[in-house]
Write a structure and sequence with these properties.
By secondary structure, the chain is an alpha/beta fold. Helix content is 37%, strand content 16%. α2 (34-49) runs parallel beside α5 (146-156) and α6 (165-178) packs across α8. Bound molecules: guanosine-5'-monophosphate and manganese (II) ion (MN).
């Protein structure tokens, strides 16, 4: 059996909050990923099943490779539909903030949310939550994903029976994408108990995997080949690597939103690699988007906070730099230099004997 997430007292408080709400807005972080979308869509299905009028608003669009997700076409993207999204927030009496830990992750949509008088609920798995952001904060950094959290909440609230195949598919997608297809942050045995429960809803997990990970355009795979072949630089000792992507290159390879998703994980396939950094010129603002990925105990989140105006998880973090790419590269080089001791292999690692 799945262990309950909330104490009876907290469950009751959540139950009351939901009971007292009539119109709900669910939102996720800027650049919504599979987990932001999956948890929002799964939670929306549950709220509608208990009679709540529910609208999902994301600050800007999700990548094309998530458009197949059931219910995606009804999601309002604030950057495209400002008026409608603002109206939805103004009409709401409850705002559910999923998969982010501070209103700043909503960017300009954050102002609309902070102006609203609606009550707020946070459901998230990022470290260091800003608990002043909501009256109830369900924050569990030890969870694989917000989608896993949403599943546990629905289960505990008694909503599992009413969950449909579509709702289950959305939750599975979020759990799968935030763990790189269950290859990191996914050692908790209960994750597989949840997956087996989701499979009873007849989801096709193999198809979901293909929809997300094997859904490249021809341009995207050639662009990836170019970046790995021509742009990837290894630091001495092959413990860290960096690659950059410019706007000019994106234009040349007909980049669409989300095309570079996941590339930052690839250098970690090199033996002994501990840290991978990607620097990409943003297509909307004059900033460089930074993504960090690591293995074992190398703290990407600390590096992101210290050098890249960001944060995140131990092994996956991000941020942005408000200056040109060449300068961003120098910042990244300084970050690697500052963390060089932590880039050494962990001591006590057994050395294979011949
Ligand atoms: P990605 O590299 O996929 O953009 O982000 C990986 C993780 O880093 C995200 O799940 C999120 O936790 C964190 N992250 C990315 N960008 C930012 C940022 O600008 N600020 C903060 N605080 N965290 C970020
Ligand atoms: Mn997440």
């Amino acid at each position: 059996m799945l262990k309950p997430l909330l104490s009876d007292k907290d469950l009751f408080a959540l139950f009351r909050l939901l009971q007292e709400a009539r119109r709900v807005v669910i939102c996720g972080h800027r650049g919504p990923d599979g987990d932001a979308m999956g948890s929002a869509l799964g939670w929306a299905e549950y709220l509608r099943s208990i009679g709540k009028h529910t609208t999902i608003v994301m600050p800007n669009p999700c990548p094309d490779f998530l458009r197949w997700m059931p219910g995606c076409k009804d999601v309002l993207f604030f950057s495209d539909r400002r008026e409608q999204a603002t109206q939805a927030v103004e009409a709401a009496d409850l705002i559910c903030c999923l998969d982010f830990n501070a209103l700043s992750r909503l960017q300009d949509f954050g102002e609309v949310v902070s102006r609203s008088k609606a009550r707020r609920l946070m459901i998230d798995h990022h470290l260091d939550p800003d608990t002043s952001m909501a009256e109830i904060c369900i924050s569990h950094p030890e969870m694989s994903s917000t989608s896993e959290l949403v599943f546990r909440l629905i289960h505990q609230l008694g909503g599992f029976d009413a969950m449909t195949r579509s709702g289950a598919a959305c939750i599975y997608t979020g759990m799968m994408t935030d763990t790189g297809g269950f290859t990191y942050a996914s050692n908790s045995p209960e994750i597989y108990l949840i997956i087996s429960l989701l499979l009873t809803k007849n989801i096709d997990k193999d198809k979901i995997y293909r929809n997300v990970f094997n859904n490249y355009s021809a341009n995207r795979i050639r662009f990836m080949g170019y970046v790995l072949g021509e742009k990837l630089q290894f630091f001495p000792g092959n413990r860290a690597s960096i690659f950059t992507i410019t706007r000019e290159e994106m234009k040349r390879f007909r980049y669409i939103r989300g095309d570079a998703e996941g590339w930052v994980n690839m250098p970690l396939q090199v033996r002994g690699m501990r840290l991978s950094i990607s620097l990409r010129e943003d297509t909307e603002k004059d900033v460089v988007r930074v993504s960090l990925r690591s293995v074992d105990d190398f703290p990407c989140n600390r590096m992101a906070e210290e050098f890249f105006n960001g944060g995140g998880h131990l092994n996956a973090a991000g941020g942005e730099l408000p200056f040109p790419l060449e300068e961003a590269v120098r910042t990244a080089e300084r970050a690697v230099e500052a963390y060089k001791d932590l880039l050494e292999p962990p001591t006590g690692t057994p050395v294979a004997k011949k």
